[in-house]
Specification:
By secondary structure, this protein is of the alpha+beta class. The chain is built from 23 helices and 24 strands. It has three domains: 4-201, no CATH class; 213-601, 3-Layer(aba) Sandwich (Alkaline Phosphatase, subunit A); 617-690, Immunoglobulins (Immunoglobulin-like). It is globular, with a radius of gyration of 29 Å. The protein starts with a helix and ends with a strand.
């Protein structure tokens, strides 16, 4: 039996433990919000302006600490591990929000390789200082906590604490508490609710679903109105789409000038091309979502902001421009000079029906400019593919050279083709100079392709567009400094300005010139097929008809055919938005009744996907003096040579020959070439050749 003194000591230990957990949870919500906002004053304003969100955030953090305390039976480890987790997530959120304007969400946890791959170009001095401050804070907290008295829970108390903390956290996640508070989804944002509460509220966030009654009653009407005209075109032109990284009309910033025209090719082509702007679903990054809209006609605004559709949703064959064209006799190829696994493109392109995906791993002697493979090299790849194509060709190319951020001097070792002029701060000038050089190079590469296609007899169509606007500094620094963003954001002006990317549609056999104005990026695919005189599925016919009534429909507004801006709470917006969502949901997730013959527009198995790229062969081994020539086909510089299952270096000569030293071989040696990606996935391997 405990004496009175022992009993008081016991309860003092319990009180100390709970007081420390309470104080730690308060510190963590303040420090996490400071990381997000970069100012204690702004954090204080948030705490007083949003007491419910602040309380819920504290309650979540408190239960996380209690959960970890009960798991480890140690409040010191519970506080320390919760601190590390929350601060690391908060820093990731700050980096993503600074450069893309979109918060860190749970789905991003599946994309850790993508994040690490481009982290080296996202870090700047401000973020590094914040990381150091966080590291010091975590270390200091852990040092203090680990020197506090030890205290262990009884098994009964530990189990009770575990059940209670799990119950509360599960209830908050399962009930999606923010949706219960705000009722309207558009009010749920990181700025108002704080990062921690926003992140947790997005854990249980599924695809928007409409009632079954709505689908049954309205789908037939929509199907009747979609239009049923089939096309048959004797001319099947080559179709080349170039999605140019961060390409935008820099001339829209009126406060600066240039030593020469940044986009002479675009301006030269306009008098005989279709041109205008496309409403991109993203800003600053996340190109895969733009690809998804362009290739499938589906809108990403039915998903949460920042949600990446490619790695999370595309798990089976779907209708895409590639599958539509392949069904009409096209050879379909995707080109992206970066890692094949990025955004899960390797698998997604297979489901979309591409024949080949030419990624960084397969490139022969790629030319770099700055940090990434140059746009000119991508143009040369496209020209090579056109040269050797027998069937009509569809190429979808996504460039990489002008990937941000741009606060570097990546072109310092190259001739300066263009200069930015005007009164600009040194930091903004560097950003603009780097970005404008990339724009100039992209336009020049387009000119090279157009000049080539102008002199070929193969009918060819080129669609050139940007994927999103560039993130010109943190928190829209350059846009704000140059007055591009309006202080009075009336009628969604800033949103439209930050999502409108230029496009131009040119062909070597048509001379029609037309300004399409602003159009949803998800609607350009049907327009391209109509322009090409090719057939399309019912879904694309519906989009074609729909876009003539509502050229733009985004998450927060729509623009009708008369140019009127319609807010998302307007009944007209809701009606049009529901129609679009209904059909998209039916095509992607439901029974596909909107499509008369869905299977005729998708590529079910795609068994020959990348087959030609993966045909590595070793045909002969020839001794030449003290060296050995290995001959075959599809040798890649990124391949590895294995002799008797051991890896050896080789000298790359060309796609059909490599050279090694004689002493590496002995009678009956087994030779094999293998191609791996940067995640050590085996992409291709040759036959085993016995010497």
């Amino acid at each position: 039996m405990l004496t009175k003194k022992q009993n008081r000591s016991f309860f003092s230990s319990i009180e100390l433990q709970h007081i420390l957990i309470l104080l730690s949870s308060i510190f963590l919500i303040i420090f996490s919000d400071y990381i997000f906002r970069g100012s204690l004053f702004k954090t204080s304003l948030w705490l007083f302006a949003n007491p419910i969100s602040a309380f819920l955030t504290w309650f979540i953090v408190l239960n996380i600490i209690y959960l970890l305390t009960s798991v480890f039976n140690n409040y010191r480890i519970g506080i320390s591990s919760a601190s590390i987790l929350i601060i690391i997530f908060s820093i990731i959120n700050r980096i993503k929000y600074d450069f893309r304007g979109i918060p860190f969400i749970p789905e991003d946890l599946y994309l850790n390789n993508e994040i690490l791959t481009i982290l080296n170009v996202l870090l700047d001095s401000g973020i590094i200082k914040l990381m150091l401050l966080s590291l010091i804070s975590i270390s200091f907290m852990i040092f203090l906590i680990m020197n506090l008295p030890k205290f262990k829970l009884k098994n009964k108390d530990r189990f009770l604490l575990l059940i209670i903390s799990i119950f509360f956290l599960f209830s908050i996640i399962k009930t999606n508490i923010l949706h219960q508070i705000h009722l309207k989804e558009k009010n749920i944002n990181c700025s108002e609710n704080g990062f921690i509460l926003f992140f947790v509220s997005n854990i249980n966030n599924s695809q928007i679903n409409l009632p079954l009654e709505y689908i049954v009653n309205d789908l037939r009407t929509l199907k009747i109105n979609k239009g049923n005209n089939s096309r048959s075109n004797s001319v099947k032109p080559n179709i080349i789409i170039i999605m140019s990284e961060a390409f935008w009309d820099i001339n829209k910033i009126k406060e600066i000038g240039f030593s020469k025209d940044p986009t002479p090719t675009i301006n030269r082509l306009k008098p005989k091309s279709i041109y205008g702007y496309l409403e991109s679903p993203i800003f600053g990054g996340g190109t895969a979502n733009t690809e998804f809209e362009l290739l499938t006609g589906n809108s990403t605004h039915f998903y949460n902001p920042g949600y990446m559709v490619y790695p999370n949703q595309i798990k089976k064959p779907i209708i895409s421009l590639s599958s539509i064209l392949k069904k009409q006799g096209y050879n379909c190829k995707a080109i992206h000079p970066f890692k094949n696994w990025y955004w899960n493109r390797r698998e997604v392109y297979k489901y979309m029906g591409f024949d080949e995906y030419i990624s960084e791993e397969y490139l022969i002697n790629p030319k770099y400019k700055g940090f990434f493979i140059s746009d000119e090299y991508v143009t040369d790849l496209i020209i090579d593919e056109i040269d050797k194509a027998d069937n009509p060709l569809f190429i979808f190319a996504v460039t990489m050279q002008n990937h941000g951020p741009f606060n570097d001097n990546r072109y310092k070792n190259y001739p300066k083709d263009i200069e930015v002029l005007g009164k600009v701060s040194p930091e903004s000038l560097q950003i603009l100079q780097t970005y404008t050089q990339g724009i100039y190079d992209a336009d020049k590469a387009l000119g090279k392709l157009v000049d080539y296609c102008s002199n070929t007899s193969k009918p060819t169509i080129i669609l050139f567009l940007g994927d999103h606007l560039p993130a010109l500094g943190k928190d829209y620094k350059v846009y704000r400094e140059m007055g591009y963003l309006s202080e009075n954001n009336i009628d969604h002006t800033n949103k439209i300005n930050l999502t409108s990317v230029p496009f131009i549609l040119w062909s070597n056999y048509k001379t029609e010139s037309k300004d399409l104005g602003l159009l949803n990026l998800s609607f350009i695919g049907p327009y391209l097929l109509e322009y090409s005189g090719l057939d399309m599925p019912n879904y694309f016919k519906f989009l074609q008809h729909f876009s003539k009534e509502i050229p733009v429909i985004s998450r927060s507004y729509a623009i009708d055919k008369k140019g009127n801006i319609i807010s998302s709470d307007n009944e007209r917006y809701i009606s049009y938005n529901d129609d679009y969502m209904l059909v998209q949901q039916n095509i992607l997730y439901d029974d596909k009744v909107f499509e008369d013959n869905y299977s005729s527009w998708i590529v079910e198995k795609n068994q020959n996907y990348n087959l030609n790229l993966h045909k590595i062969t070793i045909d002969e081994v020839i001794l030449e003096g003290d060296e050995t020539i290995i001959r075959g086909d599809n040798f890649y510089p990124n391949s590895l040579l294995f002799i008797d299952n051991r890896r050896y270096k080789f000298e790359y000569i060309n796609k059909k020959e490599i050279r090694i030293k004689n002493y590496l071989l002995k009678p009956s040696s087994k030779l094999q070439m293998k191609l791996f990606d940067s995640k050590n996935n085996l992409l291709a391997k040759s036959n085993s050749y016995i010497y």
